[in-house]
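Slide 14.
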Amino acid sequence: QVQLAESGGGSVQAGGSLRLSCVASMSFWGRYCIGWFRQAPGKEREGVAVIYVGSGSTSYADSVKGRFTISQDNANTLNLQMNSLKPEDTAVYYCAAKWGGTCVPNLEGFGTWGQGTQVSVSS
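Slide 15: predicted structure.
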């Protein structure tokens, strides 16, 4: 089973930037949908951004459009560039993967998860 490992979290002030990375134990190809999710204290986990590997098409949650960019460096590395960070972006960020299905930033079908990395944004 594929293993995912996130890195790059930290603490920044509002308006700052962070870049998260997720390295997988295998290469993603074809119908894989891979993405970033987050969970703030006391809230449910939510989708942030996903990418459909076969075409490179991306999809974002409305709350991060225009500020966050998802990308792949190579077949087993997923990135999330986060700019103009806001305090409400504070959460544990997870990368996740699934094979097939609709590639949108919701939890449906995502069964492979990393351990998460903390992002804290102060005002």
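Speaker note: The mean pLDDT is 96.
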